[in-house]
């Protein structure tokens, strides 16, 4: 079994293939319908779902099962491969010195993610520092400071300075001993021009190794515009999906992955610094289908 959790209806449809040596168009149609239902419910964009459906149908009907493979297992492995292709592999995050810039709208979970990622790097034996450049949201400084103290990682911010670029520059100087610099940025409620201008200036100052877009799991199709804008202005190398402990399954974030030609780096599943994991295709697919 390649997937832990297929969802009971999909499993039922696949199990109908047991004992068959060939699959019919009707068999595949039923399986594809089950997958479509789950993915659309999980907020995956309809055009991505249609692409996946077409690939599964074509391959399941045209490819010969390798010798000794049952029709059921053959279809299951095609479904699995196509789902992995849909969600992508995890963003490469080497365990070495680097600067990571976080982008996203207000409330997406950037500040929380900065502290969580710092905690994650510290558990890998590296020395991270979080630099808080959000001068826009009241409370962002205190929140970041408090979370970094809980994560026991270095922190730089200055509530008396209202120039985010200056904070970024000083932050990098003050935390020069750290291996990993995670730069948190301000969000806005929408993609306003001043938000984009500000993050472009911070990015020019900081010269990050990777820019991650932080998205709330409930984002739905709003992910597309955000991904496009941030990608155009600073370039997006990976996505973080937050709040996966809620009911939303985060399928909308795949639109951002597709739009930026990137991949998913981390998942957030709670409000404490430990509630973070690296993206892993299998469990994410199980979550989408389950
Ligand atoms: P920012 O404006 O992008 O910096 O967002 P914050 O980091 O302040 O997060 C906004 C709210 O979402 C806060 O109340 C966080 O505690 C909460 N939050 C962030 N990540 C998660 C998560 O993975 N799960 C849950 N349940 N809440 C989260």
Automatic annotation (TrEMBL):
Its EC number(s): 3.6.5.4
Catalytic activity: GTP + H2O = GDP + phosphate + H(+)
Molecular function GO terms recorded: 7S RNA binding; GTP binding; GTPase activity
GO biological processes: SRP-dependent cotranslational protein targeting to membrane
Residue ranges of every copy of the SRP54-type proteins GTP-binding domain listed in the record: 97-290
The UniProt record lists the keyword Cytoplasm: yes
GO CC list: signal recognition particle
Family indicated by similarity: Belongs to the GTP-binding SRP family. SRP54 subfamily.
Domain topic, free-text comment: Composed of three domains: the N-terminal N domain, which is responsible for interactions with the ribosome, the central G domain, which binds GTP, and the C-terminal M domain, which binds the RNA and the signal sequence of the RNC.
Name this protein carries in UniProt: Signal recognition particle 54 kDa protein
Source species taxonomy: Archaea, Methanobacteriati, Methanobacteriota, Stenosarchaea group, Halobacteria
Gene: srp54
Whole sequence portion shown: 1 to 290 of 459
């Amino acid at each position: 079994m390649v997937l832990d959790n297929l969802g009971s209806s999909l499993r039922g449809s696949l199990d109908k293939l047991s004992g068959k040596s060939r699959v019919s168009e009707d068999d595949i149609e039923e399986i594809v319908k089950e997958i479509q239902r789950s993915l659309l419910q999980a907020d995956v964009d309809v055009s991505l779902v249609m692409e996946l459906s077409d690939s599964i149908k074509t391959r399941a009907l045209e490819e010969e099962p390798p010798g000794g493979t049952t029709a059921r297992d053959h279809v299951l492995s095609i479904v699995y491969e196509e789902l992995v292709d849909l969600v992508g592999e995890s963003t490469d995050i080497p365990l070495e010195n680097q600067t990571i810039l976080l982008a996203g709208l207000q409330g997406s979970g950037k500040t929380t993610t900065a502290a969580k990622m710092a905690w994650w790097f510290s558990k890998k034996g590296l020395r991270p520092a979080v630099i808080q450049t959000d001068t826009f949201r009241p409370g962002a400084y205190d929140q970041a400071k408090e979370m970094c103290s809980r994560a026991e990682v270095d922190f730089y911010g200055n509530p008396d300075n209202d120039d985010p670029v200056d904070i970024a520059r000083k932050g990098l100087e003050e935390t020069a001993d750290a291996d990993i610099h995670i730069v948190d940025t301000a969000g806005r409620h929408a993609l306003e021009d001043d938000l984009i201008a500000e993050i472009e200036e911070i990015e020019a100052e900081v010269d990050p190794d990777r820019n991650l877009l932080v998205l709330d799991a409930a984002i739905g199709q709003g992910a597309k515009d955000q991904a496009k804008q941030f990608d155009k202005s600073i370039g997006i190398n990976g996505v973080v999906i937050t709040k996966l402990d809620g009911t939303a399954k985060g399928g909308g974030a795949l639109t951002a992955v597709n739009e930026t030609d990137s991949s998913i780096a981390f998942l957030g599943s709670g409000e404490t610094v430990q509630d973070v994991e690296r993206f892993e295709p299998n469990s994410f697919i199980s979550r989408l289908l389950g």
